[in-house]
């Protein structure tokens, strides 16, 4: 007996979790677009058969691709960020776009606090100190305390609130800047970004990517943060002017930075690699087995919900 025909055909933009892909392939036909030698020729021959795009916040889905698929019904994305997806183009065509919010909030908040503590207490720097045998020649320099400092959160959404809860446990005072004041939090609100940066010892970026936040943090904002301030970015690399950041770190405009995201991943500015006052991680904000499984489950729930029940679980 042959198995029933797939209910929909998916164009997968880049490799997703192997277990998730295997699960999808049990019901749907998957086309691996990243393995195609000639994308233009492939689209010319197959565009009409594609019902959905399967992608991630990293791979995205460009407007040209969305427009090239005449029967496209949905863009199902793995990840909370969707700045790499041409959402406006999709909506104009009546194409549903989904993401996987909520399930990664706590994990991303954990990573944020981990790298904040790392750069503030100079943990990675101390690790390198020991491995290089420098302890034999003298003590490692003292770092500053975390408790009593101000954590300024730029973007008080669900992840921002999860971060706030955690840093409060370390004795930090929380302040924030948002497009508008929130009625459900009691933290000090700053109407301007610069005002928050001037008040903060640690500035944590939790805003979405996209044109509205491109290079939100530049030379002027880094000067506002000041020579005793630290920048923590777990949002999108595009939010920070990386050249301005490199210069600020070199000349002491700010004390240090902890970065989990970069403008041109996986490329990292070479100048950052040589600096001791920077903690660098490879976009691992949600990188745990448990969270990635939860994201995969929500991705599949969106896919199945849309094609089997006519309604996605978490549409954008």
From TrEMBL:
Query: Has the keyword Protein biosynthesis been applied to this entry?
Result: no
Name a GO CC annotation attached to this entry.
cytosol
The family database entries (Gene3D superfamilies) matched by this protein are listed as: NAD(P)-binding Rossmann-like Domain
Q: Which GO terms describe its molecular function?
A: glyoxylate reductase (NADH) activity; glyoxylate reductase (NADPH) activity; hydroxypyruvate reductase [NAD(P)H] activity; NAD binding
What sequence ranges are listed for the domain D-isomer specific 2-hydroxyacid dehydrogenase catalytic?
Answer: 15-314
Annotated ranges, domain D-isomer specific 2-hydroxyacid dehydrogenase NAD-binding: 114-285
| Keywords from the UniProt entry | NAD, NADP, Oxidoreductase
Q: Note the Pfam families from the entry.
A: 2-Hacid_dh, 2-Hacid_dh_C
Q: Which InterPro entries match?
A: D-isomer_2-hydroxyacid_DH, D-isomer_2_OHA_DH_cat_dom, D-isomer_DH_NAD-bd, NAD(P)-bd_dom_sf
Q: What is its EC number?
A: 1.1.1.26
Give the UniProt family note.
Belongs to the D-isomer specific 2-hydroxyacid dehydrogenase family.
Q: What is this protein called?
A: Glyoxylate reductase
Q: What is the organism of origin for this protein?
A: Pseudomonas fulva (strain 12-X)
């Amino acid at each position: 007996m042959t198995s029933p025909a797939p209910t929909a055909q998916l164009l997968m933009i880049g490799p997703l979790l192997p277990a998730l892909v295997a699960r999808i392939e049990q019901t749907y036909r998957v086309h691996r677009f990243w393995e195609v030698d000639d994308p233009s020729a492939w689209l010319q021959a197959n565009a009409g058969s594609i019902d959905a795009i399967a992608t991630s916040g990293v791979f995205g889905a460009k407007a040209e691709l969305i427009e090239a698929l005449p029967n496209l019904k949905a863009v199902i994305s793995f990840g909370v960020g969707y700045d790499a997806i041409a959402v406006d183009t999709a909506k104009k065509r009546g194409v549903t776009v989904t993401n996987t919010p909520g399930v990664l909030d706590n994990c991303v908040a954990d990573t944020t606090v981990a790298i904040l503590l790392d750069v503030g207490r100079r943990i990675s720097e101390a690790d390198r100190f020991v491995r290089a045998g420098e302890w034999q020649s003298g003590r490692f320099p003292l770092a500053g305390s975390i408790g009593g400092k101000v954590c300024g959160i730029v973007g008080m959404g669900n992840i921002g609130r999860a971060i706030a809860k955690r840093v409060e446990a370390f004795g930090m005072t929380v302040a924030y800047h948002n497009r508008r004041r929130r009625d459900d939090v009691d933290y000090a609100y700053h109407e301007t970004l610069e005002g928050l940066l001037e008040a903060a010892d640690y500035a944590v970026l939790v805003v979405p990517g996209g044109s509205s936040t491109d290079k939100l943090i530049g030379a002027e904002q880094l000067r506002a943060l000041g020579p005793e301030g630290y920048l923590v970015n777990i949002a999108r690399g595009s939010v920070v002017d990386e050249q301005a950041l490199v210069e600020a770190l070199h000349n002491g405009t700010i004390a240090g930075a902890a970065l989990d995201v970069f403008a041109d991943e996986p490329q990292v500015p070479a100048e950052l690699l040589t600096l001791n006052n920077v903690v660098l991680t490879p976009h691992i904000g949600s990188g745990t087995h448990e969270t990635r499984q939860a994201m995969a489950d929500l991705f599949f729930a969106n896919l199945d919900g849309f094609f089997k029940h006519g309604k996605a679980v978490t549409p954008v």
